[in-house]
Write a structure and sequence with these properties.
The protein is α/β, with parallel strands linked by helices. It folds into two domains: 163 residues, Rossmann fold; 261 residues, 2-Layer Sandwich (Dihydrodipicolinate Reductase, domain 2), CATH 3.30.360. It is 30% helix and 16% strand. The protein contains 16 helices and 15 strands. A nine-stranded mixed beta sheet has the order 13-12-11-7-10-9-8-14-15. The chain has a six-stranded parallel beta sheet with strand order 3-2-1-4-5-6, sandwiched between helices. Helix 7 packs parallel to helix 8, helix 8 runs antiparallel to helix 15 and helix 11 runs antiparallel to helix 15. The N terminus is likely disordered.
Length: 468
């Protein structure tokens, strides 16, 4: 019986629903595709170091999850030791496929806190087996992979959450309330920026890195997953993969999901018609530029005007801001970039220009502010009520696994946002303007660019994940 059919049948008697809701899954039966509210969600965690460790601790900290399996290609490496010590008796794996084969009937959901290019196979296998998915941002590495993941979420009817955690905090609820009340309307321009130092700043490469001895704790073949074979070099692991087009999605894929996410959702931006790299500092076909400015053009949407979004990254590529901008906006939950602490004068952020008002904001949970300050003061009494979040991003996911809430950053919401960023990454990689047909989902002016929407073929033995 499908979950929706069960709910429909159960709704005939409210007393029956009330009675079932207190039963554990051992009585209720997980074959029905749900987890009883009285149960914890059994989690298998892929990637247990660095950001993966943070995800595990946050989900476990809600008190709503059991950690039942750990998987990492560097199990026993320095970055994995903390989680291994936290859960000393939990089974450990280096290959997520083996974990699914041996323990697939013992967990309800997975986390994917791994490099961008590895999100896809783990998530697709999980969804195809009816497992719920919490995956870090961006959802996947290529436009096409994101398309397949959105389709799988719909096909397999599982709860899926992308890890842009601010999408469950103040900024989300404020942006929603202000657009519904007409405070934010007729937006024609957005400036978004991330100008802190990144790992690839100062790098110069003419080819992939030379071979180095593989650490004993690392299974390099499993680390590569779908990517074509490369010789191991420490310049690829522990976050340095972000520097490479082959493995990561750069500053835009890393921070765009924390800066433009609510604007994309509540202004119904969808997909752009053009992406133009109007500025490029230190272009390379292998690693991300030292700085870039990308201009995305979005068409009219129903009663909303056409909109131009400009993205600025690079330490020296700071956008021109309104003279009354004031101090930058900082989110309470903003983590430092992996290359070092964030400068207080370089907090990532955005400026939103509407017909009547200008707003400034930061990243993650930070709320928008109307500028100049005098205008904000005059409007204070007329601003709508903004509700508080009923659950953190992590609790929201676990409650969605149990049918109690809906994921706020479900793939159907996060997917188009990630596809916008994927198109931006292609413009950086090719250093050329791309014209995009949002109906056919094709790049119409660049053959290689259009082929890169799908990306290179997966490594032999990994093709099946594109057919699930």
């Amino acid at each position: 019986m499908k979950r929706r059919d069960f709910i429909k049948t159960s709704s005939l008697t409210m007393a029956g629903v009330a009675g079932v809701s207190i039963l554990p899954s051992s009585v209720f039966g997980k074959a029905f595709g749900r987890i009883a509210p009285s149960d914890k969600v059994n989690l298998a965690c892929c990637g247990i170091g660095n950001r993966g460790a943070d995800i595990i601790k946050k989900l476990h900290g809600t008190g709503m999850a059991n950690i039942v399996a750990l998987c990492d290609v560097e199990m026993g490496g320095p970055n994995t030791l903390e989680i291994m010590k936290m859960f000393p008796n939990v089974p450990r794996f280096r290959d997520f496929r083996e974990m699914f084969d041996k323990m697939g009937n013992q967990f309800d959901a997975i986390t994917a806190g791994v490099p961008d290019f590895s999100h896809f196979p783990i998530s697709m296998l999980a969804m195809s087996q009816g497992k719920h998915v919490y995956v870090e941002k961006p959802m996947a590495h290529t436009f096409h992979e994101i398309e397949l993941m959105m389709a799988a979420e719909k096909k397999y009817k599982v709860a899926c959450q992308m890890g842009n955690q601010g999408h469950s905090e103040e900024n989300y609820f404020q942006f929603k309330a202000w657009t519904e009340a007409g405070i934010i309307k007729d937006v024609t321009k957005i400036t978004a920026f991330m100008n802190n130092g990144r790992r690839w700043h100062g790098m110069k490469v003419s080819d992939f890195l030379p071979a180095q001895p593989i650490p004993e704790t690392l299974d390099w073949d499993k680390w590569l997953t779908t990517s074509q074979f490369k010789e191991y070099n420490k310049g690829y692991i522990n976050g340095d993969w972000r520097s490479w087009f082959e493995f990561g999605n750069g500053a835009l894929g890393d921070w765009g999901a924390h800066i433009i996410d609510t604007a994309h959702q509540f202004l119904h931006l969808g997909l752009p018609t053009e992406v133009d790299p109007i500025y490029m500092e230190g272009y390379s076909p292998l690693i991300f530029p030292q700085g870039s400015t990308l201009v995305f053009k979005f068409p009219k949407r129903k009663n909303m005007p056409a909109l131009e979004l400009s993205w600025y990254d690079g330490y020296n590529n700071i956008p021109v801001l309104p003279e009354f901008y004031g101090e930058p906006v900082r989110a309470k939950d903003i983590p430092p970039p992996t290359s070092g602490p964030i400068s207080s004068k370089r907090y990532p952020g955005k400026v939103i220009y509407s017909k009547d008002l200008i707003f400034k904001g930061g990243s993650h949970s930070s709320q928008l502010e109307i500028i100049p300050a005098e205008k904000a003061k005059d409007m204070q009494s007329s601003l709508p009520f903004v509700p508080t979040s009923p659950s953190s991003h992590f609790a929201n996911f676990l409650k969605a696994c149990k049918g109690e809430e809906t994921c706020r950053s479900a793939f159907e919401i996060a997917g188009p946002l990630c596809q916008v960023m994927a198109l931006g990454v292609l413009a950086q990689r090719l250093n050329t303007k791309l014209v995009f047909d949002s109906h056919t989902k094709q790049i119409t002016n660049h053959k290689v660019g259009n082929e890169l929407l799908v990306g290179p073929p997966p490594r032999k033995g990994w093709e099946q994940y594109y057919k699930m």
